[in-house]
Amino acid sequence: MLPIVATSPTVARRIASQYPNFKFNNSQARVIGVWRISRVEVAWRLKAIRGATTVPENSVDAMRDAVVELLDALDANNAFNPEDLVSVTFSVTRDLTALFPAAIARRRSGWEHVPLIDVQHMHVEGDLERCIRFLIHVYLPSDRPANHIYLRHARELRPDLPALSVAHHSS
């Protein structure tokens, strides 16, 4: 039997649970590197995922719906467990004051203990209005790409990225 070397105790426990003959030892989870079980090797890497969306108005309902849609698209296009999240920063343009996007994210299953923060995005004349953005730091297998999520009018921010196969609503 080969040792597991994981990015966190949570990751090590999850992998160990998939292999019933493995005996988990907390001290092994402190090492950052590669897991080795039988002949399987998975290298993990801290990655950043960006995303943004827009809302039609500064209201609680419009902002809540947009944040839920954005995070649903994140889940649909980036396979990770909430335990692998390191932190999430939300920024909003100065014209959005109805609610904190992090308060909506906190309600998602598994996100209760993820460090979340909201900030006001720097104002630039002529930039996209009523925009909610995020920057997420998450551990992903090194061979898995981070799929950035740009919805609604926020697609204008990153026209170089491919459109996602997620239902988009215009605002």
SSE map:
Layout: H1 9-18, E1 34-37, E2 40-54, H2 60-77, E3 85-92, H3 101-106, E4 116-120, E5 131-141, E6 149-150
Parallel strand pairs: 2-6, 3-4
Antiparallel strand pairs: 1-2, 2-5, 3-5
Search tags:
single chain, 171 residues, alpha/beta, 60s Ribosomal Protein L30, Chain: A, 3 helices
User: Mean of residue pLDDT?
Assistant: 82
Number of domain modules: 2
Q: Spell out the CATH superfamily of the largest domain.
A: RutC-like
Number of helices: 3
Please give the radius of gyration in angstroms: 18 Å
Helix percent band: 10-25%
Structural features, described:
- The protein has 171 residues and is an alpha/beta fold.
- The protein folds into 2 domains: 9-38, no CATH class; 45-157, RutC-like (60s Ribosomal Protein L30, Chain: A, 2-Layer Sandwich).
- 20% of the residues lie in helices and 26% in strands.
- Strands 1, 2, 3, 4, 5 and 6 form a 6-stranded mixed beta sheet that branches.
- A hairpin with a 2-residue loop joins β1 and β2.
- The protein starts with 8 loop residues before the first helix and ends in a 21-residue tail after the last strand.
- The relative contact order is 0.22.
- Residues 26-39 and 167-171 have low confidence and may be disordered.
